[in-house]
Amino acid sequence: MTRVPTAPLLQWDDRSGPYRAAPHPTTAILDHALATLAADAADLLTSAEAARLTACGSVPCNRFLLRHGRRHWCSTRCGDRARAARAYARRTRPEHE
Ligand SMILES: [Zn+2]
Asked: Rounded to two decimals, what is the model's pTM?
C-alpha cells in the first residue's frame, strides 16, 4: 500500500499548466494490483467481517477464509482432503481404541 500512492499527483506542463496524473507508469501495473489487494486486505482486517476470518482447517493448507455457517475449509479440495484423512484415520484405527 505504501509503495503505490492512490491519489493522482498534481503536475505541471509548460504549455497547458497543471494537470493530475497517476504517479506510476503503466509498467508498474503489478505493483498497483498488489497495492489494491493489500488495501482490500486492510479494509477486511479493520471491518466487522474480520471476526469471521479463520485459518483453513485442512492441514497443511495455510490459507484463510471467511467463515459461513459450519464451513471450516477454504475450498472443496481442502474439505475433501480433510474428510478423506478423517475416513482413513477411522479405517486404520486399532481395534482396542
Ligand atoms: Zn484450505
From this structure: 0.57
- The whole-angstrom separation of Cα 57 and Cα 64 is 9
What's the gap in Å between 82 CA and the centre of ligand 1? 9
Which residues are within 5 Å of ligand 1 (an ion), measured at CB?
A: 56, 58, 61, 63, 74, 78
The stretches of the chain forming alpha helices (DSSP H) are 29-45, 76-92
pLDDT digits (tens, 9 = 90+) for 28-37: 778 888 888 9
Burial of 58 (0-12, 13-18, 19+ CB in 10 A): buried
